[in-house]
């Protein structure tokens, strides 16, 4: 890398609008570049992080589902993630790092409420937004559940999150803060009208000013709506946090005003957390969309067939989201497990025994 992972944010890149990846991605590219000096093809290396992440994501999804359903359902959902055509296309072919960010986001929720490891959960949450910034919509829900788990859990979660953020984001924030803000934090995506809201707005002939607005500054309203939905669901059912994270990331894709085939990754694994049939329906239809899209002349110029499949896939995604919200709300409203209980009950029991002896 000519400029390094920090100064890269200052550079105009030929053929690209900006370098819009969070800081950890730059260090990853630097490491992969060093490995390529050993003779390993860079094309193989650049696909490795996402492909490895998909393997671990299948395990995380298995563990999440196993704790909330049957072993058979957990196996089916884990295998569904591993065999998802969406992930095979976006990770194995494209090599984009969206899958890495999603894996860390799901892992953070699993570590927090299932493994009762808030420190590791905080690190995983920070890693998710350090690879791709999109999981920022689930961070408020994670902090809310950490708060509800008790002060020690919140402190550990916050410490892990803050330490990793300071380590990875600190040098860039101190060196090129304005470039980071413009290129990463305010990035609205490309202006292609291929997916979701902007696609339907264009099809139905809505005013150009409206479409331009939701593609620009207006997209922040959808991001805020996703974060608010995640917080609301996490407050009602904190023990279902992994499912809440999956639904929130899927909602972000549903409301996305940007278009790119790799964005289909945002919901691919998470919908298997919602349920096998929800994940399978999405992966099959949108997997075909991704495969055909990548086979076209350009990943950002979709054929009429791919556009039609994407429209149907958007409707399937909406139906899956309704199913996900219903399953979250139908779950027993119990809080996530807090820190292990200390010796207080034993001490109380002894005190009661002494009191009883005194009476006798």
What does this entry look like structurally?
The structure is a single chain. The protein is globular, with a radius of gyration of 22 Å. Helix 17 packs antiparallel against helix 18. It has 19 helices and no strands. It is mainly alpha-helical.
Low-confidence stretches: 340-360
Total helices: the number is 19
What Rg, in angstroms, do the CA atoms define? 22 Å
Order of helices and strands: HHHHHHHHHHHHHHHHHHH
Approximate strand percentage: under 5%
Protein structure class: mainly alpha
Distance between the first and last residues' Cα: 82 Å
Largest β sheet strand count, sense and barrel closure: none
Query: Could you give the count of β-strands?
Result: 0
Q: So what's the oligomer here?
A: single chain
- Write down the overall geometry: globular
Helix percentage: over 70%
**Mean pLDDT across all residues, rounded?**
89
Descriptive key words:
19 helices, mainly alpha, disordered C terminus, globular, 360 residues
Which helices and strands occur, and which strands form pairs?
Layout: H1 4-7, H2 23-36, H3 42-66, H4 71-82, H5 85-94, H6 98-113, H7 118-131, H8 139-148, H9 151-175, H10 177-185, H11 196-203, H12 208-215, H13 219-236, H14 241-254, H15 265-268, H16 270-274, H17 276-295, H18 304-330, H19 344-359
Helix pairs in contact: 3-4, 3-5, 3-6, 4-17, 5-17, 6-7, 6-14, 7-9, 8-9, 8-13, 13-14, 14-18, 17-18
